[in-house]
Amino acid sequence: MSATASRPARPETAGPGRFARPLLGAFLLAAAVDLAGLLAGLDTVHLVAKPLLMPLLAGYAAVRGGPRLLVAALLFGWGGDVFLLADNDLAFLLGMGSFAVGHVCYLTLFGRDRAPAALATGMAYVLVLAVFLVLIWSDLPAELRVPVAGYSLLLTAMAWRAGVLGRYAAAGGALFLLSDALIATGIAEWPRLPAPDFWVMLTYIAAQLLLALGVLRAGRAGRP
Q1: 58 CB neighbour count, 10 Å cutoff
Q2: SS3 state at 47
Q3: Which of 126, 197, 215, 224 is in the most buried spot, having the most CB atoms within 10 Å?
């Protein structure tokens, strides 16, 4: 038997893992198409590309052997993406609720790592959240103030706790917070950047990808 034939197959190229690179490539392609569509003002492109993002990333995480809670968090993110395609308050609340369940999945997953989260980072997050809510409170529709505040607390906790899994997950949590802050400023009708939906989606896509990669890297390193 040759030396080449006797080598064990790499996890990425054996079994379901052989689909990892095609799924990641499809996710990145869908992300590029979605972002280009937003820059070009092509709403139909966004309506088609956006719902493909999280299922592709969840599939990638699954074939890489990612934990079920990661896959669940990404799929609840997909639910939020789909609901937010509709432009009404009920759809917004349903989408926010779906994302909230995804954040609970992330928090539960991060809680399995017994490493303490940085206290200074947590205090900084709390300060930023408090200032942001105080500034935006009066500009939010009255019926959305409490749901937005509760969701923001949950998201901030997730972003802070993500730091226990390293730089990728920490950056993902911070970008998720930034993405949702951009959405909130739009609801409050604050001045926004040009092509605001592009920046919301760019930070959101990067956030979910970095969170997934952070969890997968921690798993490969043998952490809980």
Answers
A1: 24
A2: helix
A3: 215
Please tell me the distance from the alpha carbon of residue 7 to that of residue 21, in angstroms, as a whole number. 21
Work out the burial of residue 158: count CB atoms within 10 Å of its CB; fewer than 13 is exposed, 13-18 middle, 19 or more buried.
Answer: buried
Q: Which of 186, 185, 133, 138 is nearest to 156 (CA)?
A: 133
Q: Name residue, tokens 């605001």.
A: 196
CA-nearest of 116, 124, 75 to 98 is 75
Token pair 């790592």 is at which residue?
113
* pLDDT tens-digit map of 175-224: 999 999 999 999 998 999 899 999 999 999 999 999 999 999 987 655 44
Cβ neighbours for 79, distance < 8 A, ≥ 6 positions apart = 95, 98, 99, 102
Low-confidence stretches of the chain (pLDDT beneath 70): 1-16, 114, 220-224
Q: What token pair was written down for 119?
A: 């206290």
